[in-house]
Design goal:
single chain, alpha+beta, OB fold (Dihydrolipoamide Acetyltransferase, E2P), BirA Bifunctional Protein, domain 2, eight-stranded mixed sheet, five-stranded mixed beta barrel, elongated
Length: 456
């Protein structure tokens, strides 16, 4: 028989962490606040430290040693505070007191204990005046020190959660499709090639083909949020080589209008959630009023858009079937002036600039049942009804000179009863960019990837 002896380990009792935005509930009590040193004002008689966590900033006020019985303790605290540097990680324990002079909520903490958890080196490599590209080199510091950047990712979470909840309520199944492909896309352009056990593989430009395979598998409605890779050497404010895509595919549709209807309702739902959860904070940090759009969104065909813009003087050289960024901005301004709406669907793109798998209207082989969605003049979505008839797909691929051998697995999906379907792909970063009035998608991404940036 084995006898065991139980030993009781007594751990020191620590004051639970209190977040800055909860301090009012602890007025007069002792709290422990963990965060980063924002700024220091070290005076002869007093020391003031602003400590910031992800919910706000509080002032810590400490009187230096005097002639009282607590002189030694005050001196020790003063020495610790004098050694602090901006962005040091600290834990401050003390009493919450009211001070109407303090602009930060009228409260401050009188410290009884200061713990330096990680002292930050000085000087810091960036400050509030540092340009965007250099701030991206030190993105963790950039995000940590700016409440607006912190808010961006909270908004991103709410947008994703709201879109996911809407899609689930609409009967969508969330899928996770492969990002490694054995063949390049249908065109072979703008894909990243990498070694794969002695042969080549490619990073997926889109989950498009896999979404359609899921439809053919009998999964009625498909929803996915995942990474997308584009090997395009674009240096604009709206392009990235890796971004997060929001993708939807809907089976048994009656037409492309079903897809547009789904998207506008999903966006209205997401924006309503953002307004409810973050409206006041976005107004304070970004100066933007989040509004829930009226339904339906305006629609205009590409031919109508081109005619309208050319009548107003837009005439870029070589653009006869598409819109350039200036054209998109002009069109959005026109729609906003006429209808007060910030969104517009541009529909019926010419088949010459759309993929072979986009369905074409009966008797109008030069057009596609496709659309782009513009928000304040920026394209955030491309969508279409897909061609689900095997013979038509083969013919349209041949017309575009697309070889079908590498697409055999994809095309097999349409040989055995694939239903009518359509869907969309949306750039999450672009949605955030427009929503928060950002100048570049670099700011709407935690760690941006572009032609010249693979770090940090």
């Amino acid at each position: 028989m084995i006898r065991t002896t139980e030993h009781t380990v007594t751990r020191p009792t620590a004051t639970p962490r209190t977040l800055v935005h909860d301090l009012r509930a602890h007025l007069g009590g002792t709290v422990s606040v963990s965060g980063w040193v924002n700024t220091l004002r070290l005076q002869r008689a007093m020391q003031f430290v602003l400590v910031r966590d992800h919910t706000g900033t509080v002032q810590v006020a400490h009187r230096r040693a005097g002639a009282g019985p607590d002189d030694a303790r005050a001196a020790a605290l003063a020495e610790l505070i004098d050694g602090l540097t901006p962005e040091s990680a600290v834990r401050i324990t003390g009493r919450v007191v009211e001070n109407p002079v303090v602009k930060l909520g009228g409260l401050e903490i009188v410290p009884t204990r200061v713990e330096v958890l990680n002292r930050a080196e000085t000087p810091l490599p960036i400050d509030q005046q540092t340009g965007l590209e250099h701030r991206l080199d030190w993105r963790f510091l950039d995000v940590r020190a700016r409440p607006a950047a912190q808010l961006l990712f909270a908004v991103q979470t709410t947008v994703e959660r709201a879109m996911r909840a809407f899609a689930q309520a609409e009967g969508c199944t969330e899928m996770h499709t492969p990002k490694l492909m054995g063949t390049a896309s249908e065109s072979g352009a703008e894909v990243f090639e990498l070694g794969y056990f002695g042969r080549s593989a490619y990073l997926a430009q889109s989950p498009q083909f896999y979404k359609q395979m899921a439809i053919a598998a009998g999964i009625d409605r498909v929803f996915e949020v995942g990474p997308v890779f584009r090997a395009e050497p674009s240096f604009t404010s709206r392009h990235a080589t890796e971004f997060t895509g929001v993708d939807v595919e809907l089976a048994w549709i009656d037409g492309v209008e079903d897809v547009m209807d789904f998207e506008e309702r999903m966006l209205a739902h997401a924006l309503a959630e953002v307004a409810a959860v973050h409206g006041a904070a976005i107004r304070e940090q970004f100066g933007i009023e989040v509004t829930v759009p009226q339904l339906p969104f305006p629609r205009i065909t590409m031919a109508e858009a081109q005619e309208l813009l050319r009548a107003e003087g837009w005439d870029p050289e070589g653009l006869k079937e598409d819109l350039d960024p200036d054209g998109e901005r002009r069109l959005a301004a026109h729609i906003r002036e006429r209808s007060g709406h910030e969104f517009v669907f541009v529909t019926h793109y010419p088949s010459g600039i759309r993929p072979f798998y986009h369905m074409r209207p009966e008797g109008q082989d030069g057009l596609t049942l496709s659309f782009d969605l513009l928000w304040k003049g920026l394209e955030i979505t491309t969508g279409a009804q897909r061609e689900h008839r095997y013979e038509v797909l083969l013919r349209q691929a041949a017309e575009k000179g697309v070889g079908t051998e590498s697409l055999r697995d994809y095309l097999n999906c349409f040989r055995f009863g694939c239903p009518p379907h359509g869907g969309l792909g949306m750039g999450l970063g672009r949605v955030l960019m427009v929503l928060l009035g950002l100048e570049s998608i670099r700011e709407a991404t935690f760690l941006f990837r572009g032609p010249n940036r693979l770090t940090p």
